């Protein structure tokens, strides 16, 4: 893993250690959300999951993965941070259909059999897309789907970058004033779409998820893409579907 991504995983390990030391932890999911509670699409975006081989990329404490396992999916939840992994292990020991893995997602994708569905609730912006996407595209079965949420505009109103580079965002340890500067790839939707297409995937939709609070600029995008049945299609650059995409500025 390159140094910048090692640094990111280390900050998540500090976060996980902090959370392990607290008596409070997150409640079970009431509704499935893609990071901002009570707005945006829910679990339906994933379609029928029973019987699918599914990867949760950057699974954290594993709540989403546990939900899908309960619906009959064969879920692997991968997280690079040992303390985040520990949180998931403490919370979901011996859960049928759920396999918890502590590893870099790229290393895991290179070694594992391909998945029918890879999803990520705000985990993907912590990996360099140029390193992740080749492994991710190859890690999907033909026809397999990728669905992920990604920060678009932070709560200070800083919009996405117009180049594929990481920039610092603030991660505050819950219940404290301690803040860490966390590198993240916060990219314009056209850049995410271009990266997906360049790696042979067909973009199916880009959905805007805005904070419901008045005056709060926080905004995410939910990306859904599919690996074509054949990755050899030379016209794949024309395969981008534009009609259902509702990418905001
Ligand atoms: C914002 S948290 C999301 C956690 C979880 N998906 C959720 O919604 O609760 C991002 C997670 O990505 C993990 N992560 C960061 N870099 C990673 C990598 N290279 N491979 C796998 N996981 C990674 C972090 O450890 C962290 O737990």
From TrEMBL:
**EC number per UniProt:** 2.1.1.222, 2.1.1.64
- In terms of superkingdom, the source organism counts as Bacteria
Q: Where is the Methyltransferase domain?
A: 54-144
Transmembrane as a keyword? no
Q: Name one GO molecular function term.
A: 2-polyprenyl-6-hydroxyphenol methylase activity
Q: Could you list this entry's UniProt keywords, alphabetically sorted.
A: Methyltransferase, S-adenosyl-L-methionine, Transferase
Q: What organism is this sequence from?
A: Streptomyces roseoviridis
Q: Which SUPFAM superfamilies does UniProt cross-reference here? A: S-adenosyl-L-methionine-dependent methyltransferases
What would be one Pfam family of this protein?
Answer: Methyltransf_25
Q: InterPro entries, from UniProt? A: Methyltransf_25, SAM-dependent_MTases_sf
Phylogenetic placement of the source organism:
Bacteria, Bacillati, Actinomycetota, Actinomycetes, Kitasatosporales
Methyltransferase found in the keyword field: yes
One example of a Gene Ontology biological process annotation: methylation
The name this protein carries in UniProt is Class I SAM-dependent methyltransferase
């Amino acid at each position: 893993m390159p140094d910048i991504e090692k640094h990111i995983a280390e900050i998540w390990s500090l976060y996980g250690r902090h959370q392990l030391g607290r008596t409070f932890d997150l409640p079970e999911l009431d509704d499935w959300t893609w990071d901002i509670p009570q707005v945006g699409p829910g679990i339906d975006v994933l379609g029928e999951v029973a019987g699918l081989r599914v990867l949760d990329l950057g699974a954290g404490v594993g709540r989403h993965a546990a939900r899908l396992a309960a619906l009959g999916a064969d879920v692997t939840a991968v997280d690079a941070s040992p303390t985040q992994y520990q949180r998931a292990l403490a919370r979901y020991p011996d859960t049928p259909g759920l396999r918890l893995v502590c590893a870099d997602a790229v290393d895991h994708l290179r070694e594992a059999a391909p998945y029918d569905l890879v999803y990520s609730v705000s985990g993907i912006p912590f990996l360099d897309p140029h390193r992740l996407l080749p492994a991710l595209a190859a890690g999907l079965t033909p026809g397999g789907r990728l669905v992920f949420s990604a920060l678009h505009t932070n709560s200070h109103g800083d919009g996405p970058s117009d180049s594929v580079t990481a920039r610092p965002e603030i991660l505050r340890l819950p219940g404290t004033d301690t803040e860490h500067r966390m590198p993240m790839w916060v990219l314009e939707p056209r850049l995410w779409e271009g990266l997906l297409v360049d790696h042979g995937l067909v973009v199916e939709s880009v959905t805007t998820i805005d904070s419901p609070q008045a005056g709060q600029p926080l905004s995410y995008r939910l990306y859904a893409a599919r690996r074509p049945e054949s990755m050899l299609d030379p016209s794949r650059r024309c395969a981008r579907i534009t009609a259902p995409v509702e990418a905001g500025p």
